[in-house]
Amino acid sequence: MNMRVIGGWLLVVLALAAVPVALPSAFYLGIATHALIFAIFALSLNILIGHAGMSSLGHAVYLGVPAYAVAWLTVQAGWQPVPTVIVALLMGTALSALFGILALRASGLGFLMITLALGQVMWGAAYRWVGLTGGDNGIRLPARPALLGFDLSSALSFYVLVSIVLLIALCSLWQFDRSAFGACLRGTRDQPRRMSMLGHNVWLIRWAAFITAGFWGSVAGVLYCFDYQFVSPQALSLPQSAEALLMVVLGGAGTLAGPVVGAIIITVIKTVVSSYVDRWYSLLGLTFIVVVSVMPRGLVPGIASWLRGKRA
Amino acid sequence: MTLTRRNVLQASAGAAALALTSNQARADEPIRIGFLTVKTGPLAAGGIQMEQGMLAYMKIKGNKLAGRDVQLIVADTGGSPQGTRTKAQELVERNKVHVLMGPVAAFEALAIGDYCEAQKMPTLGVAAAEDMTQRHSSIWFARATSSSGQCAHAIAHYAAKELGYKRMAVIGDDFAYGHEQNGAFLRVFEDNGGKVVQKLWPPLNAPDYGTYVSQVKTNIDAIFMSFAGSNGFRFAKAFNEYGLAGKIPILGGMTAMDEAILQQTGDDGLGIITASFYSPQYDNAANREFVATMQREYKIDPGYYASGPAVEAAILEAALLSVGGRIEDREALMKAVRANVVENTVRGPVRFDSHGEAIGNVYIRKMVKQGGRYINNVIKTYPDVSQFWTYPEAEFLANPVYSREYPPAKNLES
């Protein structure tokens, strides 16, 4: 590892540690926590969009299903937090394995439509299967549980947990990107036919990427349920999937920092700016249009190349 | 008994006020009301009217309740449970509001129920979800408007007893609010000798009601619709386009023919009978002024959405008067809300049951054209309607909440 890489990671850790100092009120810390959870979610979607080159409009499945699993297992089955979290993660990941088999029969627009359809199926099930999900009324999680003796009820302790999970996600996705597998995945994105001729199983590589995305999405889903302590079909809805897509594209697909930046910007517009601006949806749209027309590859790559241009 | 409770309360409030007269600075602070509504997305029409209703009412009151200035902080939830939760946290933790009003939709209200309970936040709700004042009631929550079933019970009784209908169909939006209204209608209608022979559930955002209108049985006496927003207007239009107008009468719930959409509905809605906890025709000083202000400021008659906050604000003011303006004493405030009988709200007299739900008038209204304008003309008033209708409370609460399947429809014909 060279100094720049170490410096970069130190900066991330420092920034995460600085947030509770700079924003001592529980309310702002709560918003920072929402943003980081969506950063994990956007990072998981970025594996598909950025690394595998496959746009999905059904990623909310991996946010919503584990969230429902956590709420249901805790409230209805009375399970302890640790087995609940493990089973919820397994469910989300297993579901992504299954849906991967279905969706990867196609690529490009076909893939997009199949993921959209699968997402709508799950949304419809959550909406209609009232006995299991409470339908429109959702399921309430009475309190944030203590995980391994670590009490999560305060805003600060939950923020610390989410920050640690985000750091783990960033580290492992960074390694993922640098690994031979990451290189293969980019190969299938850019030259699938050549990869296949070289003897790589393109389908299997994509499927593994799909499952990895599903796993990290599920991690975000579990945290989402702990955060809001409420799950309703909205967590599985198309707008939720589209919002994650927007975060990735806004920040910069294929980069590590991009989805995080995108998630922070969109969360801030949704929660903070909306208190001052009535037409915040329009502002969100406008931001997106400006970024896409000025920096078509997203904010992070756009600013990076602008800085390089200035230095040269 | 109510009287003794109130007396005790006033006495204790007086003692508390004495104890705190030294703390004058706090009493000079404005009362901060956090107002959760929806200003973006599909629920925005109702949410904006809710805000207008509140603004109009506060304008009449000179922006004061019980002699204290009011600071209204309006937050847009975006119509999502997550957004509602974030905004509720913002209002409570950052703006330090004394009381919450809203939100619009049941799923939003349910998303913040536990949070308000944990924060001991006095909340005056308008969303109609039955269980908020039934199986999951809380001392921190009261609703001065109506539960989903409260008005539907009354119109079901009217249909069976006054109109003499025997066979009816029910149609409603396929979400909890529609399910609860139709369940309530079915129960009272069948207990009074009627039969519900058909249930139809179009999705909330059905683009066109044609396919549903064509399924409606023709050998029925009438159809009950429990739509929200502008869906009632759209259904009535489709109903008439298929030539069913005048052949099958339409009845509706409290949001099916809202005053806000009456002028758009026009002739398509003539003769539709609906039930609501509020009528712009109700004749008292508060309501005359409220209706006039709404017409002057926003050019609409107030209906379900606009009147809710006006009723809640009156309830809040009465409770404030009972606790000597001291909104900071949250527990005494919420006790006063439930103990008071408020005679002069815009919907008429209101008192509360032990679960925090209003007991008040329900108006049966028929849409007519009068002086070039369309209005819902009151044809009967059911006084003192409880959310439990005439059923014993314990028995009512032992049953599951009204849903798509409950109460079971035994008389469906395929």
How many domain modules of chain B?
Answer: 2
Taking all residues together, what is the mean pLDDT of chain B?
Answer: 89
Helix content of chain B: 40-55%
Helix content, binned percent of chain A: over 70%
Which chains make the largest contact? A-B, 28 and 30 residues
Q: Strands across the major sheet of chain A, in which order? A: 1-4
Number of helices of chain A: 14
Sheet of most strands of chain A: 2 strands, antiparallel
CATH class of the largest domain in chain B: Alpha Beta
Strand and helix order of chain B: HHEHEEHEHEEHEHEHEHEHEHHHEEEEH
Q: Return residue spans of chain B where pLDDT drops below 50 for at least 5 consecutive residues.
A: 1-25
The average pLDDT of chain A is 90
CATH homologous superfamily identity of the largest domain in chain B: Response regulator
- Counting DSSP E segments of at least 2 residues, the number of strands of chain A comes to 4
Contiguous uncertain segments of 5+ residues of chain A? none
Structural class of chain B: alpha/beta
Sheet-strand content of chain B, in percent, reads 15-25%
Shape of chain A: globular
Radius of gyration of chain B: 21 Å
